[in-house]
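Why this split exists: single-chain examples teach little about how molecules sit against one another. For that reason, every record in the complexes split bundles all components of an assembly together and asks for one structure covering all of them. Below is a record exactly as it appears in the raw files.
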Amino acid sequence: MADQYAQPREDKRPTEIPAIRWEEPPEGPVLVLLDQTRLPAEEVELVCTDASALVEAIHSLAVRGAPLLGIAGAYGVALAAARGFDVEEAAQALEGARPTAVNLSVGVRRARSAHRAELTRTGDPTAAATAALAAARTLHQQDAEASARMAAHGLALLDELLPGGGHRILTHCNTGSLVSGGEGTALAVALAAHRAGQLRRLWVDETRPLLQGARLTAYEAARHGMAYTLLTDNAAGSLFAAGEVDAVLIGADRIAADGSVANKVGSYPLAVLARYHHVPFIVVAPLTTVDPQTPDGASIEVEQRPGFEVTEVTAPQVPVAGAGGGIPVAPLGAQAYNPAFDVTPPELVTAIVTEEGAVSPVTAEVLAELCARSRQV
Ligand code: MRU
């Protein structure tokens, strides 16, 4: 058997990966995205000059992950305003681009409110566009700060739950600097453990069907020199059974008022495995991911994605075309079940770590208290 603890080959390229940035060239403002569909093969930038290009980038997952979707949504409104497009129409299209991550509508609404308020106050579209951009920049900055605070709270929680260090952490999907204004959510905690010399191994679920773990988390972990090992999602069970997992750390796309957590499909089975094997299952998410308007898990809209993502393997470099432009791996016409997310009930969640601290056990009351406390700050 290959040594799963072998050190991965070091990747010395810079660790700063700006997933999104606003630029103002002479031709007019643009939103520049690192195209995440092309990683890790190529670092290609995608330049959006209007909100519809950004909506397309959101659909294709060129830009993805809950906190980053919020930031992108806010900049998208600012872009529409700065380029003189219909801001309300752009906001509606952006908000509807993906349904599960509540951060997207939080970001869109913040920029739209700033725009509306300034337009009402001054009647000046330029001033209103400036206000929308300022709101987007603030959200971007706040997310970076939240990320650093979550990392610190998460590390403290790991120290408390697993004294002695040497953590072997399993993660799913991608939750690092590719999804954030800072270093991310769950991956930022793992990175803090790595920097503190307490990470023995990061287990990276490949995350079928779009491979956010294999393509993106492994890409980030390599740049940080973290000791990581990739596994297929269905190898997680035997890894738990072998006693090789000390904690599961994941992010969230929406946390309902009762503490139910929607995250990348495959998170719920990990929570069940973690409970069976007495391993902490920890969710790391900023408060912008907590949605008091969604009462429970059953009320969370789970995005259903096209079947070809399951029936074909997509590789942008290979010019073979199935219905989705990929290499068919199933018989022609095969039906596929392809929810992008699943929902973990609060009783399976050991703790939720936010920028305001960790809550455990996860109940509607403690979450409401946390949200109320953050509104007073
Ligand atoms: O479909 P994706 O790639 O946007 O899904 C992303 C996830 O599920 C992440 O785990 C979640 O957004 C949390 S990111 C901090």
